[in-house]
Structures are given as structure tokens and as C-alpha cells.
Amino acid sequence: MFLLGYVGVEVALGGWIVTFMIRVRQGSAFASGMTATGFWLGITVGRVVLGFVTPRVGEKVAISVYIVCSIGFGLVLWLVPQFYASAVAVSLQGFFLGPLFPGAVVIVTKLLPRHLHVTSIGFVAAFGGSGAAILPFAVGVLAQAKGVKVLQPFIIALSGAILITWLGLPRVAKVRRNE
């Protein structure tokens, strides 16, 4: 369920941010398109940079903090009605969303026996991929009925749900390795 929600957040936000920035923040098509680039660049840079931080802090704590930060920048994007603030906020939202997928994969490998890793990672990735189909569609249905301004409350609520799901995972023992 965590990856279904996460992938849904990632694809819904990445797919709808241009429309949101044009219609709600009155940005030009080019500038609004660049916010999508900033979001995806944020995801990429977040995976690289926070990929070094996450194992030092521990996946459980780090991912919890990243989701809270993502929700915080989602609130900025939603509540600060200024184009440039929104553009920076969505990029930072992407930055903190970036390490969620790899972190979830690491947790799966720590929670399950080695012989189940390939099958279980394949299953959770496939199940998570269904979030890429279902949740952006749900945003579209809501946007058609209420306007694209529903994007951020939807993303924030879904991020809260994935945080609750993440916090409900069993505790993972920290593995000490001699380096």
C-alpha cells in the first residue's frame, strides 16, 4: 500500500503540476512546464543526495522525516499563492519524495527472507505501479468536478496516508557492519 500511494503521489503531482501552475498560479505555459522539470529534477537529486543520508539515519526515521518535509512543501505549494514560491516548493517536494521508493525497497529486503527478495520486490513494485494509473485518474475526476485546485489537498492527504502506512511497518533491526 505504501508504494501504491507513493507512486500515485509522484505521478499525480508530476502529471498535474503544469495544469495547476497554469490555471491556479497563472503561469505561462513554458514557466509552468519548467516546474514539472524542477519536480522531476528534485526527485532525481533527492535520490542521489539523500541516498547517502538515509542509511546513516536509518530508513524508518529518514523516510518519515522526508514525508513530513514533503507535506510541508506541499502546504507551501497549496497555501502560498505565488508562482515562484510554488515552483521552488514543488521542486523541494520532489527532492524529499525522491528517496521514498528506494527506501521502501531496502525495507522490504530487511523485513523478508532473502529467498523472497526478487519476488516480493517485483510484487510491491508492480502493485505500486498501479498507483500511477489509479491516483492521477482520481485527481482528474476531482479536477473535472471541482477544478485543479484540488491537486494539493489530495496530494497532502495521500502523503499523510503513506506516512501512517510507513509508521505502521514493523521495526527493523539495525545491522552493524565492520567497515
From TrEMBL:
<dbReference type="InterPro" id="IPR020846">
    <property type="entry name" value="MFS_dom"/>
</dbReference>
<feature type="domain" description="Major facilitator superfamily (MFS) profile">
    <location>
        <begin position="1"/>
        <end position="179"/>
    </location>
</feature>
<dbReference type="GO" id="GO:0012505">
    <property type="term" value="C:endomembrane system"/>
</dbReference>
<keyword id="KW-1133">Transmembrane helix</keyword>
<feature type="transmembrane region" description="Helical">
    <location>
        <begin position="87"/>
        <end position="109"/>
    </location>
</feature>
<keyword id="KW-0813">Transport</keyword>
<feature type="transmembrane region" description="Helical">
    <location>
        <begin position="61"/>
        <end position="80"/>
    </location>
</feature>
<dbReference type="InterPro" id="IPR011701">
    <property type="entry name" value="MFS"/>
</dbReference>
<feature type="transmembrane region" description="Helical">
    <location>
        <begin position="121"/>
        <end position="143"/>
    </location>
</feature>
<dbReference type="Pfam" id="PF07690">
    <property type="entry name" value="MFS_1"/>
</dbReference>
<dbReference type="GO" id="GO:0022857">
    <property type="term" value="F:transmembrane transporter activity"/>
</dbReference>
<keyword id="KW-0472">Membrane</keyword>
<feature type="transmembrane region" description="Helical">
    <location>
        <begin position="150"/>
        <end position="169"/>
    </location>
</feature>
<dbReference type="GO" id="GO:0016020">
    <property type="term" value="C:membrane"/>
</dbReference>
<protein>
    <recommendedName>
        <fullName>Major facilitator superfamily (MFS) profile domain-containing protein</fullName>
    </recommendedName>
</protein>
<comment type="similarity">
    <text>Belongs to the major facilitator superfamily.</text>
</comment>
<keyword id="KW-0812">Transmembrane</keyword>
<dbReference type="InterPro" id="IPR051788">
    <property type="entry name" value="MFS_Transporter"/>
</dbReference>
<feature type="transmembrane region" description="Helical">
    <location>
        <begin position="6"/>
        <end position="24"/>
    </location>
</feature>
<feature type="transmembrane region" description="Helical">
    <location>
        <begin position="36"/>
        <end position="55"/>
    </location>
</feature>
<dbReference type="InterPro" id="IPR036259">
    <property type="entry name" value="MFS_trans_sf"/>
</dbReference>
